[in-house]
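thread: overnight batch results

M.L. [08:02]
morning all. the overnight job finished for the chain we discussed friday. pasting input first so we're all looking at the same thing
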Amino acid sequence: MFHVKLPGQDAIARQADERIVTHRVKLPRRTVQRPWRQVARRVVMALLCLVATALIVYFDHDGYTDNSDGGAVDLLDAFYYATVTLSTTGYGDITPVSDAARLTNIFVITPLRVLFLIILVGTTLEVLTERTREEWRLNRWRTALREHTVVIGFGTKGRSAIQTVCATGLKKEQVVVVDPSTKVVDAATADGYAGVVGDATRSDVLLRAEVQKARQIIIATQRDDTAVLVALTARQLNRGAKIVAAVREEENAPLLRQSGADVVITSASAAGRLLGLSVLSPSAGMVLEDLIQQGSGLDIVERPVVKAEVGRGVRETDDLVVSVVRGHRVLGYDDPAIGKLQLTDRLITIVRATPNTQVAPDTKRLT
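M.L. [08:03]
and the structure it wrote out:
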């Protein structure tokens, strides 16, 4: 057992210990109306029923008698009678005595009482039903979730990464976003992804995202030290998942690989290289940017070697091959070690793509 410390990590740990961390799972919602608006609307409807009943009683106050106040019924008595009547309390101190008042109670106030009860009981039942439905959706989601993708951090890097992965045909239902910001997770669920609010360095938060059953994990946090802790925790929970992480400083990349990341991308250096290439050749910079933007123009695709290509050379294929993946080695197109293509090889090619391009199940675009 070893402990990794990076600059500023002690301060972060102290802050984490001082606050209570809450986390919860959020699934995409189809309804856009907020719960408090639904409750407010029902409260207004109930108040309208109450006011309407009180006004009806007051306008016909001569048909009512107050046994405890000398028989006269004023506006306050009307609201009191409406309240105890609609709530089915019915103390009996104010009663209708005229035929008109009694008919009004039968045909007007009684339906208003029923409507009032429907509003109150309906609100309670809706809240209970919504909780049960949400719990059922969550349990079903956990049961069905397999071989999914977990994205740690839904900022610019995380959002761009998952958009690229989804361009290969990955369904949004197979993506879980983990972020400590409630607003960020709300934005993710609005886009159709499931979300978990919480600190991804904590194992219980990652377990809520079912990281132990994930196929691939994308770490796109804002801080390098956080990325290292997340990689350590994720690798401990899932030994077989593919972990891809981004770091700002290139010097932290080896530490992240030691923490369990399979692939580490240095975001600052990559952006700097693209800037430098664009200075030397703006056209080359445009082509490279087109390659990493999936779904249109030119795309980089990794695909298996088909049977018709076995025994041929790299230049004898129909596609523009830039590299050959053989075992754990990535060989350039001009590497003499390639020789003839083998059935177990995979080719990294450049293809012309459009937004309607369909990607085969065994083919994936690369960035």
